[in-house]
Amino acid sequence: MFDLKGKIAVITGASSGLGRDAALAYAKEGVNVALLARRAEKLEELAKEIETLGVKAIAVKCDVAKEEEVKSAIETVVNEFGRIDILLNNAGVAVRGGVDTLNNDDWDKSMNINVKGIYLVSKYVIPIMKQQNYGKVVNVSSINAFLADKNDIFIRHSYNASKAAVLGLSQGMAASYAQYGITVNTICPGLFESEMTENTLFKSQEFLSKYNILCPASRPAKRGELNGTIFYFSSDASSYVTGQYIVVDGGLSIV
C-alpha cells in the first residue's frame, strides 16, 4: 500500500527546506519528481543529485503566485512525464507582524504564496488527475493554523490566517474531487529546521528553551520526520482518507 515506485510527483517550494527533503525522500522511494520553485540554480543542483538515485527529475522555475508561470510549469511536467500522480503543495512564506504593523504588501505576500499558490497549482493539476481518475494532493499548512504566539518577536498574523485558509481550501477540494479518485489531505508541521526558521526561531535560545519545555517531545523536529506522513497521504495506504489533516509537532498542540 505504501509503494510509490514509478509515480510522478510535483513538489512546489522544492529548492530548500521541507520541500527539498521531501523531493529526496520521494526519489529514494522510486518516485520521479518535478521540482518547482523560484530559484532555478538550486533546483538544477537538486535535480542532478536526485538523478544519481536512479529516478528522473526535472527542474522547473516557477513562482506559484503567478498564474502564467504555473500554467507553463504544469504543461512542462505533463509534456515530460505524461501524467501527475502526486502534488505536494509545499511552497510557503512566514511574514512576521501583527495586524497593527503589517502593511498591505506583507499581507498579500502571505496570501499569494501560501493560499493563492495552492489554488493556482491545483487549478492546473486537478484536471489532469480527473482525467486519470486518480490523484493524491498533499497540502502543507502549519500548527500555526490554530496556534498563535503572543511574543512580539514571533507574531505572524498573516501566516496564521493563510495557513488556516489552507485547511478550509483542502476540505473544499476533498469534498469536490473524491468522486474522481482524488484525495486531498493536509499536513500541519510544528517546528522544523528549515531556511524559513533557521534565521529566526532557531537563532533564539530563549525561544528554543521555552519550546523544549512546552513540547512533550522536548525538542524540535529532526530533518526527515515529516516524510512518513507525506508518504502516507501520497500512497494508496490513504485511499479512503480525504479532507483530513495530521499534525506533526511532537505533541505541542495537545498541551
Query: CATH superfamily name?
Result: NAD(P)-binding Rossmann-like Domain
* Low-pLDDT runs: none
CATH architecture: 3-Layer(aba) Sandwich
Mean pLDDT metric: 95
Number of strands: 7
Counted by DSSP, the helix tally is: 8
- CATH topology (level 3) name: Rossmann fold
Main sheet properties: 7 strands, parallel
Shape: globular
**CATH hierarchy, class:** Alpha Beta
- H-E string: EHEHEHEHEHEHHHE
Question: First CA to last CA: what distance?
Answer: 33 Å
Task: Kindly report the spatial arrangement of strands forming the biggest sheet.
Answer: 3-2-1-4-5-6-7
Compute the gyration radius: what is it? 17 Å
Helix content: 40-55%
Provide the β-strand percentage band.
Answer: 5-15%
Return the structural class. alpha/beta
The overall number of domains is 1
Protein name: Short-chain dehydrogenase
Organism: Inconstantimicrobium mannanitabidum
Could you give the topology of this structure?
Elements: E1 8-12, H1 17-28, E2 32-37, H2 40-51, E3 57-61, H3 67-81, E4 86-89, H4 104-132, E5 135-140, H5 157-177, E6 182-189, H6 195-198, H7 205-214, H8 227-234, E7 245-248
Helix pairs in contact: 3-4, 4-5
What does this entry look like structurally?
It comes from Inconstantimicrobium mannanitabidum. This is Short-chain dehydrogenase. It is a single chain. The protein is α/β, with parallel strands linked by helices and 255 residues long. It has a single domain (8-194, 223-248), classed as Rossmann fold (3-Layer(aba) Sandwich). It is 44% helix and 15% strand. It has helices at residues 17-28, 40-51, 67-81, 104-132, 157-177, 195-198, 205-214, 227-234; strands at 8-12, 32-37, 57-61, 86-89, 135-140, 182-189, 245-248. The protein has a 7-stranded parallel β-sheet with strand order 3-2-1-4-5-6-7, sandwiched between helices. Helix 3 packs parallel to helix 4 and helix 4 runs parallel beside helix 5 (157-177). The longest helix has 29 residues, at 104-132. It is globular, with a radius of gyration of 17 Å. The relative contact order is 0.14.
